[in-house]
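User: Teach me something about this protein's shape.
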Amino acid sequence: MTGRLLALSTLGALLAGAFAMPGPAGAQCRLCATPTTESTSKPTDLVRIEVQTRLDFDQLVVMDNATPGTARLQPDGTASVSGSISALSGRAMVGSVIVRGEPGRLVRIGLPGSIALYGIGGGSIRLDSLTTDLPAQPRLDSRGSLQFRFGGALHVEGGVEGEYRGDVPITVDYL
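Assistant: First, the predicted structure itself:
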């Protein structure tokens, strides 16, 4: 009986050893493991736009309501008038914007081709030819910011007395 008991205990020890043996090591086959799809890089920062100064033509002097006129304001602050507009106020201001995001990233900045400005009385005037002082390939600096200025051409026609307002949508995308 002792021989039988010894055989059963040996068999039990062998089975316990078989179940306790470790599985294959993870480093044995790197191609056998399921690949991960997680990104190891940090998530990109969102782009933020801060308007520092709004584009403001302030006051225009229109000499003849029957003739169209144009007031231009360049990003460097240079102002000019033509047609029925004889003067542009000295308080006119170019728009100024700061873009903030991931340092060193190239960005694409988009301005509309034309927008309508509306007055309280229901009239409208057109702002177009929006230009900036941005370089050909704008890039956020080492602090993650880029400042630029913009101007445009304001076209008036007919009796356009009053205040006119509108929004200039600016889009910024990482390249």
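Now, about its shape. The chain has one helix and twelve strands. The domain at 48-174 is CATH 2.60.40 (Immunoglobulin-like). If you'd like, I can walk through any region in more detail.
User: That's plenty for now, thanks!
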